[in-house]
Amino acid sequence: MAGEEEKTLGTIFTLLRQVASLKQVQDYLRAKDIHHSAGSWDDLWESRVIPAIKAEKLLASDLMMLLAESEEHGRQHVFLFKATSRTARALMSEESVRRAAHNLGISALLREPKVLDTPDEPTYTDIRWEESEGLSLIIKIVETKVSHEFCDERVEKGILTKTYRVVSERVVNVVKLRNDGLLQIRVGSRRNSSGGYEESLGRVLKMVQPFLDLSKFRRLSLGNVKNQLWSNRDTLGHLVRYSDATLKNDQGTMLRAATGTKEANLHDDQGASDGLAAFMKHEAYCDSSNIFFRPQDGGIPSKEIHVLMRGMDNEFALTVHCPKVDYEYVLRQIEALNTPVS
Question: What does the alpha-carbon distance between residue 118 and residue 143 come to, in Å, rounded to a whole number?
């Protein structure tokens, strides 16, 4: 194995450690009939991954695919937009995408993705088509976010000195256009994000404008989803566990209820439920929800998936990384719920 190849593989494996669990990688190796037992990440790399690569049982492209699936789903704020299917098919055509990539000087990404840890500036790292319940176009952008983490403070000779650690964080943004016209802008979550994600969203939209004529898309409001989740909580109880909810009316009055523990279900608190229901009768609406999609028969989702329904009207967030099938399950549920309350 050449030195440059080993360096690239090492970077891929380092990134996998950040976004996947040891068990996920072991399960992947098991599925490819590769020895997978290991007590640690280092052990897995030295005793399982490297020998499998040398024996050509495992390719760099295999690890790239695993990294893509692991880092592209969850721990992100998702913004939904919609265009006609005709518009989507035209924008994601091979001719259109290749022309945009050529103009940007990134045609090489159509052949092979780029592996980056913390780039100096937002960088395109992947452009590909994916066949999954219809054709989709995927564009990935990796950037580095720098934050300051407080360490300590001291007073010396009347001078207060505070010390902060500079933290560089790798952020993965994913843009996915389905051929039915649904556009997902998945902005990677970051530390200290109390100011929201509008600025990050704007930066990603600017970078994908050469590929997607955004004037042909409209924001897909998720207001109906929030109202459905609360108004139909009795029938949705087997699908969703409610952690908190905030209701609001046209006068700006807000009513919020939250569970006392992380594991509790707001729906089980009859007093809180009745109070919120009474407020809803006076032309109020659900402004935000903190929910968990529950595992169903068949093992999908594989565990409770924490979803925040708040922020911009077309935004929802998944708080942690999750398997692709779990993300797609959540998206299907949100699409199904995005109809007016009857």
Answer: 6
- CB burial of 84-116 (b: ≥16 within 10 Å; e: otherwise) equals eeebbbebbeeebbeebbeeeebeebbeebebb
Whether this model's pTM surpasses 0.70: yes
342 residues of the chain, pLDDT tens digit each: 566 777 888 899 999 999 999 999 999 999 999 999 999 999 999 999 999 999 999 998 999 999 999 999 999 999 999 999 999 999 999 999 999 999 999 999 999 999 999 999 999 999 999 997 789 999 999 999 998 889 999 999 999 999 999 999 999 999 999 999 999 999 999 877 667 899 999 999 999 999 999 999 999 999 999 888 888 888 898 899 988 878 778 778 887 777 766 677 776 667 766 776 777 676 777 777 889 999 998 889 999 999 999 899 999 999 999 999 999 999 999 999 998 765
- Considering the domain architecture, whether residues 58 and 180 belong to the same structural domain is answered as no
84 and 215 part of one domain: yes
> What range defines the domain where residue 162 resides?
74-219
